[in-house]
Specification:
Elements (H helix, E strand, L loop, with lengths): L2 H10 L4 H13 L4 H13 L10 H14 L2 E4 L5 E4 L3 H32 L9 E5 L2 H11 L4 E6 L11 H8 L3 E7 H5 L1 H13 L3 E5 L5 E5 L3 E5 L2 H4 L4 E5 L3 H16 L1 E2 L12 H12 L3 H8 L3 H15 L4 H10 L4
Parallel strand pairs: 4-5, 5-6
Antiparallel strand pairs: 1-2, 3-9, 4-7, 6-10, 7-8, 8-9
C-alpha cells in the first residue's frame, strides 16, 4: 500500500489530510523533530529544498499533538524532541469505534430529518408506518433496500416486475454472505421461461429456499423483519406504478404472518437429500417442475426439450418409481421423501 493509499484510509477513520500526511511521512522516512518533519513534508509536496517555507514547524504542532493524544506517535530522544510512529492497533480501534458512533449518530439524524420532511412537506396520518414510492424511483428503491438486507428476506414473487424480469445478482451475493432467502413463487412466475432461467433457477442454485402456490395473496417482500415492500398486482399495474414501504407496526407483523402461513402450505421447488443420487439431473429438474403444478408444455419449454422427449423422460421416471400414472409417481416421490 502506497503513501497515498494509507493517507486516504486514515482520513476515512477521521484524521485530517494533514494529520494523515504527518503519520505517513514518519512511516516512510523514520522519526524526526517538528522542524525536520516540516522540511520533509515541504520537499514531498513541491520537490524542492525550500519546502520548510511552506510548512513552518509551528503549523504542525497542533496536528502532531493530536496524533500523540490518539496514540499514533510518541516522543523520543534525550530531550523528547523527536516524533516516532507507534504500532497503531489500539489507536485505530478506538478511532474506528468513534467513527462508527459518528456514523450511527448521522444515520439517526438523517432519519429524523426525513421524518420531519414528510410531516411538513407531504403530511400523512401514517407517516411513520407507510411510505408510498411512485414512478421511476420504484426499481431503484427496491435494489437499495435489497442491498441493505442483513439476515433474512421473505418474498411472494409474481408478475409484473419493476426490474423487468432481469437477473438478481444482489440476492446471489447476499446468499453467499449468509442471508437467508425464502421465496413463494406464483405459478405464473414459474411459467415464464425467461424469468425462470435468468432469475429463479440461479437463485435456487445459490441457496434460495423456494416454494410455489397457484397464486400468491400479494406481491410482498419482508426484509429482516423490519421493513416490507408491497408492490402492485397485475390488475393495478396498468393504472398505478407504485410500491408501499411498511415500517415496524402491527401491519408489518400481519404481513409476515401471512407469508409464514402461505409458506407452510406451498409446495417445495427443490428436492431434498433423499433423492437417489443416481437420478439423472434432467429427471431431478422434471420432478421439481412437476411439483410446481405447471403444464407439460411449460415443463418442456423450461427444459428446452420437445414434448416427445419429455414423454420419454417421464416413462423412464415411472419405470424407476414402479408407477404407471403421474399420480402414482407423485405418491412414490412423497412417500420416499424426494419432495
Amino acid at each position: 500500500m502506497g503513501d497515498e493509499d494509507i493517507r486516504g484510509q486514515l482520513c476515512r477513520l477521521g484524521l485530517t489530510r494533514m494529520q494523515a500526511e504527518i503519520y505517513a511521512c514518519l512511516l516512510a522516512e523514520g522519526p524526526g523533530g517538528t522542524e525536520d518533519l516540516a522540511v520533509r513534508m515541504g520537499r514531498h509536496r513541491d520537490g524542492r529544498e525550500t519546502g520548510h517555507l511552506l510548512f513552518a514547524a509551528r503549523v504542525l504542532d497542533r496536528d502532531v499533538a493530536h496524533l500523540r493524544r490518539l496514540g499514533l506517535i510518541t516522543t523520543t530522544g534525550t530531550d523528547g524532541g523527536e516524533h516516532t510512529p507507534v504500532e497503531p492497533s489500539i489507536a485505530l480501534e478506538a478511532m474506528a469505534h468513534t467513527r462508527a458512533a459518528e456514523v450511527q449518530q448521522a444515520h439517526l439524524a438523517a432519519k429524523q430529518a426525513y421524518r420531519d420532511y414528510r410531516r411538513s412537506v407531504t403530511p400523512q396520518g401514517t407517516e411513520d408506518l407507510i411510505e408510498v414510492i411512485r414512478g421511476p424511483h420504484v426499481a431503484e428503491r427496491i435494489w437499495n433496500i435489497e442491498e441493505a438486507a442483513e439476515s433474512q428476506v421473505l418474498r411472494f414473487d409474481s408478475p409484473p416486475y419493476h426490474t423487468h424480469c432481469t437477473a438478481n445478482p444482489v440476492e446471489i451475493e447476499k446468499l453467499g454472505n449468509g442471508v437467508e432467502y425464502r421465496v413463494v413463487y406464483s405459478r405464473s412466475a414459474v411459467q415464464n421461461a425467461d424469468y425462470y432461467n435468468i432469475n429463479i433457477k440461479p437463485c435456487i442454485a445459490a441457496g434460495e429456499q423456494a416454494r410455489v402456490l397457484p397464486t400468491v395473496p400479494v406481491k410482498l417482500t419482508v426484509y429482516d423483519q423490519r421493513l416490507a415492500i408491497v408492490s402492485m398486482s397485475y390488475v393495478e399495474s396498468e393504472v398505478k406504478d407504485y410500491l408501499l414501504m411498511v415500517h415496524p407496526s402491527s401491519l408489518l407483523s400481519a404481513l409476515t404472518g401471512l407469508f409464514e402461513t402461505s409458506w407452510r402450505s406451498a409446495l417445495p421447488m427443490h428436492l431434498n437429500e433423499r433423492v437417489p443420487c443416481s437420478l439423472q439431473p434432467v429427471h431431478r429438474r422434471i420432478l421439481e417442475l412437476l411439483a410446481t403444478g405447471v403444464s407439460d408444455d411449460t415443463i418442456a419449454e423450461l427444459l428446452g426439450v420437445s414434448r416427445r422427449t419429455l414423454s420419454r423422460h417421464l416413462e423412464v421416471m415411472n419405470s424407476r418409481a414402479g408407477s404407471t400414472t403421474r399420480f402414482q409417481m407423485a405418491l412414490h416421490a412423497a412417500r420416499n421423501g424426494w419432495i
